[in-house]
């Protein structure tokens, strides 16, 4: 894999049909795709490399190497290697599992079957075996295997219909047509096998809407464009079969070029942890240097005296070298500030949070039996820090279902239910819809609730008839009948489908069309209209018209389009109706409906003939053709007579409006990135309340050149900043990265709400030039940003622009293959398991079935995960600083030695008798005066059995490092002691078990189960999400606070027992200042202090918290008494020599008083500080918790609040496709079928849309927070 020759960069591609040998010399990629990260060979090295990019893993590997050096190691190596291997193995298994599913998905795609023309025969081949230049046969409803040049099809003139939902998110059908010279090949296998045309085209790229190439065949050349190409990821629809020649395969296809690469994602906390680990290592290095210097000084001044008591035949020890060894020894001892168990615990907590997401029944969509799924376990806390959400539109915000809801005809609204007092009432599910069962051609999915419309049709109202006649004639819909005779419509846009279906159910049924005629059924009568002209839609016109001649010989122009465009072209006689209809349009828009104006004009026969002659002349012009045709369209589309307007409901997914409103209150900015046209995207913006009438301005950027885009951005900023020319000039003049610093200033200084709408062409110019910073600055100052007609790669580029320059946590959400690139680019990728396959889900980090679940994912699971992880880290660092720094203070009393014993003692040591202490075996103790400057070793001659003989005391003042571990004590030349061991301030077993047994489960319980407020309160008060965005709960400042807290606790843990034991005696008159009693007192105090501290930190108590916290204390005492018992000493005398010490120490009342004093001194300052802070400066969380407690006592009756209507904002609702319409194609007759195609599905059943509740939510949130404190006002 790594040894393969690098493929040269392509400038152009040359492909010869049916000639694999010729094409192989260019080393074109095959059709196999790879979305996985590893292979069997590369998994281990790449995965280890990725894991050791985490600074902590590299740090522990370094410590492990140090612990393998006996001269400096004071802890056994297994204490580090076992948890390190465990962490690396767990992470590797998780990564391998994730990649296994990627391999499985790749294999599923690569092993799909396709019919390939090989050696003159059609053979079934796997997709991965398809080569460039092969000719492939596709059948109806099949996925396209590669980027193909369309050669021929079952349809007339080589047409075929494709669905491009995987590419641009649009589910409406597109038309592709073959060259006339190749369409003649048909399905003749022998002729196709002899086809040897050569294609010279552009190199592989990611531009979905552009293709440039030339086909050379039979001594002639034919130009190729995007209309001749079928891209991988498309689905063949309503076409029995087609043949295509492979141009781009596998990774060279435009779909894969837009997919992006799989990136290794890490959370901001992980990145911060890398920095903190480096800081901690620097801190430990400073401590080690201090102690090493102290050791060198002590060795130089005092160490010589110690040697007089020892066998020391060598020269005097080098104090500098001793300090060097001491430095590394203390690095090992103090490494527990960041133990490996920290990362084990973090992974366990993240795993628990992932399971909570998977198990959340409130995120389960019963319609598809689809639960939410956390596809990664490493990014949960990042969900609580999202600042920008980038959302696809089709299938993500909407269901892509259009429903005809209301209409205004001749000044009367149809679609509203009125009572006897003519008061409007909302249509509810209880109202009976109009019964269309008596009409066999009616669409069963269509519902309308106003019976008066049907009555007007029956009464023969001419305006109503003309209205629906226009809807049945003015469109680009294609009709067909399935095998049962059912009428099926194939639509270019879902809006057209909704309008034609409404006319169909009202008795005006579009039946068929030819290049010259349109046939409709008017109330049971077939009527054929002569199609004289088709005035197609484009982005500038924003309308479409047809000119027809009815059977009576009258010529009429029927037009529909944006109301702002048509109203300018009305005849003065329609002025009164215009005012009334305009009011109706405003009302429709206020309800979130998409609107269109409907008008017509009667044409004189002579005038039309003259106009049509000019149109034919303009169509044949070589220069300025488009401008001439546009001028003629403008000329005839005037003096129109207004009929009325339509109102279509774009079916949003359930809960979209509420979710967007709630996320906006949480200070999350939502950007819509869609492949749809501008009008459609803007309408969805209004429907979702992302755009409102109350906004100060909506900036539209639609420049076609870099200069135009720069000028439009300048004007928009000028309007935004108003009269502040100095600020504006500063922004315009500075084109460097430093200008991004002005964004934050602008966000504070700009008042009002603004929105930005930019199309794909302008976005491409902005992203590929030096004005992208200006675009980002303007976009960040706007409340809403909508990017329309963008390619998948542009989506990723926008996400990367914000991610890189704003340093903000981003989330991308989508449901199709066209969203994969931005899902991979964002910090968090969310896939919706919608109507467009599973590509987005497979590439995502989290997935669910409905957009509304994003609210709960972020505001509940994300916020809780961030809150829990931050509390976990704060507590973990605190307890480990408190635990570890006791070693530092102890160093000043043990000659700065990291070990307790040194070389073999002299054979005739100083012997001093002392009073019997009734010891079991032998023990060690410090002199109560001057800890560390003298030490005592007691030995009982019967080792392990009680003896009345006084123990032998070996007293020596010196550096304990100078006796090697494993040496023995001698008395008069006879060995009198067990093997000596390396001992630190704590028992080595306590050091090993502290983080993995004594304190692991309580902190895990807090990290997994803790919650500051309930899930419902988290949803009701989105402002609680802001601390995560501002990174307030765990940052460098919080780390230093935890560090200072831990240092204070370590001082109390060491010096309070030290001061208490300094001249103390036990109840039996004996001293209590031996080493093990001192260590047991400190260790017991530490366990109790950290347990009390986590009890204070726990906000939400469960039975698990109680069991883990109090059970950990009980476990500590159980293990402590076991390790100092006679039984364990009998089995492992060398490992557990300090028998009887715990029983002797903890039976002393003074010991328990010291433990109590240490606990109170450690905890009380924290309790006092938190009490004062909560009382004087309560956070919103504190107020909610206080309110919750009050609610439990009072339990007031909850009042229901009335619903509020959305603000009005009129706009066009006509959802046209990306390119110009198919008017020319329709009139040419190329798309007329010779026979019925295979049956296709009809329109889906419309769903009810939810009403807006933004005002309700704002008011509810304000009222709720206001009730938390009777004396304080919370600013929202």
Structure write-up:
With 1276 residues, the chain is an alpha+beta fold. The protein is built from 43 helices and 41 strands. A hairpin with a 2-residue loop joins β40 and β41 (974-975). α2 crosses α4, α20 runs parallel beside α30 (853-891) and α35 (1036-1061) runs antiparallel to α40. The two termini are 57 Å apart. The model is unreliable at 1-6, 418-430, 723-746, 900-983, 1199-1209, 1235-1255, 1257-1262 and 1264-1276 (pLDDT under 50).
Please provide a brief summary of the model.
Its cofactor is Mg(2+). The protein is an alpha+beta fold and 1276 residues long. It is built from 43 helices and 41 strands.
Poorly predicted runs = 1-6, 418-430, 723-746, 900-983, 1199-1209, 1235-1255, 1257-1262, 1264-1276
Q: Quote the beta fraction.
A: 15-25%
Q: What's the N-to-C terminus distance?
A: 57 Å
**Side-by-side strand order of the widest sheet:** 14-35-34-33-15-29-32-31-30
The helical percent reads: 40-55%
How is this fold's topology laid out?
Blueprint: E1 12-16, H1 20-24, H2 43-51, H3 55-67, H4 78-110, E2 113-118, E3 121-126, E4 135-139, E5 147-153, E6 159-163, H5 165-168, E7 173-177, H6 180-183, H7 189-194, E8 198-202, E9 213-217, E10 220-224, E11 229-230, E12 235-237, E13 241-248, H8 254-257, H9 268-301, H10 303-307, H11 319-333, H12 340-359, E14 373-374, E15 388-391, E16 398-409, E17 412-414, E18 417-418, E19 424-425, H13 451-458, H14 462-473, E20 478-481, E21 487-490, H15 494-505, E22 508-513, E23 517-522, E24 525-535, E25 543-549, E26 555-561, H16 563-566, H17 575-590, E27 594-603, H18 605-619, H19 625-636, E28 641-652, H20 656-665, E29 669-673, H21 678-687, E30 697-701, H22 706-721, H23 725-733, H24 742-749, E31 754-759, H25 760-767, H26 772-781, E32 784-788, H27 792-805, E33 810-814, H28 820-825, E34 828-832, H29 839-842, E35 846-848, H30 853-891, E36 911-913, E37 923-926, E38 935-939, E39 952-956, E40 970-971, E41 974-975, H31 988-998, H32 1000-1009, H33 1015-1020, H34 1026-1029, H35 1036-1061, H36 1075-1097, H37 1103-1123, H38 1126-1131, H39 1141-1145, ...
Parallel strand pairs: 15-29, 15-33, 29-32, 30-31, 31-32, 33-34, 34-35
Antiparallel strand pairs: 1-8, 2-3, 2-4, 4-13, 5-11, 5-13, 6-7, 6-12, 8-9, 9-10, 14-35, 16-17, 16-28, 18-19, 20-21, 22-23, 23-24, 24-25, 25-26, 26-27, 27-28, 36-39, 37-38, 38-39, 40-41
Transmembrane segments: 276-298, 320-344, 881-902, 989-1009, 1039-1058, 1078-1096, 1108-1131, 1151-1172
Pfam family, one: PhoLip_ATPase_N
GO molecular function, one term: ATP binding
